[in-house]
Amino acid sequence: MKWPTWYHGAILAAISVTLWWALGRVRMSKATRATRVTMAIRPAALELAIVAALYSVWRIARMLPLATSGGAIDRARQIDDLQRFVHLPSELSLQHFVMDYDWLARATNYYYAVVHVPATIAFLVWLFVRHRDHYPHWRNGLAIVTAFCLFIRFVRVAPPRFLPDLGYIDLSTKYGLSVYGPVGTGVSDQFAAMPSIHVAWAAVVSFGIIAASPSKWRWVFGLQVVLTMLAVSASGNHWWLDGIVAIALLAVALAIDTAVRHWSAARRSADPAGDDETRREAEPIVSDAVGVGERPEQVLDEEAFVRVPLE
Questions:
Q1: Mean pLDDT over residues 87-109, rounded?
Q2: Rounded Cα distance, 44 and 192, in Å
Q3: Dihedral over alpha carbons 107, 110, 111, 115 (to 10 degrees)
């Protein structure tokens, strides 16, 4: 299973930035249809450039030379012990249930390998077009939680499929559609189970739709994160805690974005008098009916004074 490389993302980002810059140079009447199209395309081109650049960074970070296990197996066993201690359900039982039905096992593999990237892209497009006021918050949350996942991957953790002595198997070796090759190859890191970026992105999609959409059907899309949690665990690619930690990190990412927004808004409103003075200084000085060197409000004040009837 092959996804676009960082190079493809970088090219798309460069093309999008160029388009955004070129459209900004267009000088037409605001009444023309071409200008309305430009006003619609230009912000979309900028957002596409940002997302493509973030994708390139993500792919480059996943190519870092971290091919060694470095205690990954031991940490996986510790996670398994912790999950047993807190009485989380067994991933092994879920995997055995899925393997009882070939169609379900193949569907699980397909869901794990294919769905998370297109679903995230479709969500961002939908949010940008239909609910643009919510878009920056969830785009920033996606970027921050992805950065968290890429940073934490330096602590190597093996997925359940690397513990065959416990009964786990790699579902893709039996039913196909693997995104992994030998350690150090493939489109994804073999020992970056904690946290699950699949679950993090699925949570962005589910919670973002629920938060932004007013439709009563928005709750149906909560299934995206639920199905992803089941798929990553049943396929032997993640522990339950990998998904739980990913969702917790998304909550932290969204809180960070909210805090930064509140701080920025507080700074802008801290000195309203200074803002008014700045806007006043920026007003143009007119010289037609108003008079050279006079501001429009000055003329209005004087005319109002003159027109007061004398008794």
A1: 91
A2: 33
A3: -140
What is the token pair recorded at 113? 């390998």
DSSP string covering 275-305, please?
HHHHHHHHSPPB-SSS-TTB-HHHHHHHHHH
- According to DSSP, the residues that pair with 157 across neighbouring strands are 192
- Count of CA atoms in the C-beta half-sphere (13 A) of 223: 6
Residue-wise DSSP of 117-154: HHHHHHHHHHHHHH-TTTHHHHHHHHHHHHHHHHHHTT
Condensed to tens digits (0 to 9), the pLDDT of residues 254-276 reads: 999 999 999 988 888 876 655 55
Q: For residues 311 and 306, what is the distance between their CA atoms, to the nearest angstrom?
A: 13
Note whether 26 and 35 are within 8 A (CB).
Answer: yes
Give residues with Cβ within 8 angstroms of 291, minimum separation 6: 299
Separation CA 132–CA 123 (nearest Å): 12
192, β-bridge pairs: 157
Cβ count near 226 (within 10 Å)? 12
Q: Check residue 300 and give its pLDDT.
A: 41
Asked if residue 195 lies in contact with residue 247, where contact means CB atoms within 8 angstroms, the answer is no
For residue 153, name the pLDDT band (cuts at 50, 70, 90).
confident
